[in-house]
Amino acid sequence: MSLLLFLLAGSAADLGTSPMVEDGHSHRWEQFASDEEGTGWIDRAWRGETEHQGERLKLVLVRVDIRKPEAVTGDLFLAADCERKLLGIKDGYLFEGAYGSNRRFPTVQLTMDFGDNPPSEDDLKVIAFACDTEGSAG
Q: Backbone phi, then psi, for 29, in 5-degree steps?
């Protein structure tokens, strides 16, 4: 699935503070992708880590507003494998969507197959932010 699916014009701030972060967190949303299918924003004020199959992965919080193939608005913790340049969904919250509204994402096992193969330009933006490699060669 492409990050390009997670796109739609609007403002990330319109939905308020994500239910996935600690109380008092102040988001700094920055749009990283937009096309006819929707819009995606990255929270530049939040990073984390997780372990998956014995490896440490970086986490980033993104807000998505999707128009196609199904309308979905939500927040996602995306896991980034910095070496292999892969993305996976760690957790999510649906504000509105086909799987329900105002609830946690249906529980899924983390698989690192969320982004395009090879990674799209939008995937690479998320990976670079998560892995703190923005502006560096590599």
A: -70, 135
Residue pLDDT, tens place only, 12-56: 777 889 999 998 999 999 999 998 888 999 999 999 999 999 999
- Coil, strand or helix: which one is 115? coil
One-character DSSP codes across 29-86 = EEEEEEETTEEEEEEEEEEEEEEETTEEEEEEEEEEEE-SSS-EEEEEEEEEETTTTE
Phi, psi of 130 (to 5 degrees): -60, -40
Which residues fall within 8 angstroms of residue 38, CB to CB, at 6 or more apart?
5, 6, 7, 8, 9, 64, 65, 66, 67, 68
Cβ(64)–Cβ(15) under 8 Å? Answer: no
Q: Are the CB atoms for 87 and 123 separated by under 8 Å?
A: yes
Residue 126, token pair as written in the block: 């998320």
Two structure tokens written together for 70: 């199904």
